[in-house]
Amino acid sequence: MTGGELAGILVAVFWAILVSFLAVALARLAQTLKATTRLVSDVTDQAVPLLADAGSAVRSAQTQLDRVDAIATDVQEVTSNASALSSTVASTFGGPLVKVAAFGYGVRRAIGRKGPAPDGADTRPTDTRRTVIVGRTVPTRRRGKRKKD
Known about the structure:
It contains one helix and two strands; from the N terminus they run αββ. By secondary structure, it is mainly α. The longest helix has 110 residues, at 3-112. It is rod-shaped.
């Protein structure tokens, strides 16, 4: 055997090894493509009904939104009617009721006074209420006094 023949045999053996590795790689690639095709087919089979369900859910939501819109319109109309009724009642009864309340207060106050004291002192009852100002209680006697700057 000469050197050229030996080199040819070595090249042929390496070529055969390379072809076998390529054949194994192509076989695995074919299996991967088959599995991918099967997976895409399964996803398609499951996605079509899901899309149909999603479409029906969107249609149902649109129907409900239309109903809510109609209800909101009715509520707005009722609110405007209630506001108009409130304005009418306030204008009709408000003035006279305020006058009656003021008259009653004046009568109570007039009856509550006993007349002038002999020494000229004011006989009005002292106000024992307290005034609340921003979380503090100010005694009645200090109510009229203000700090000068």
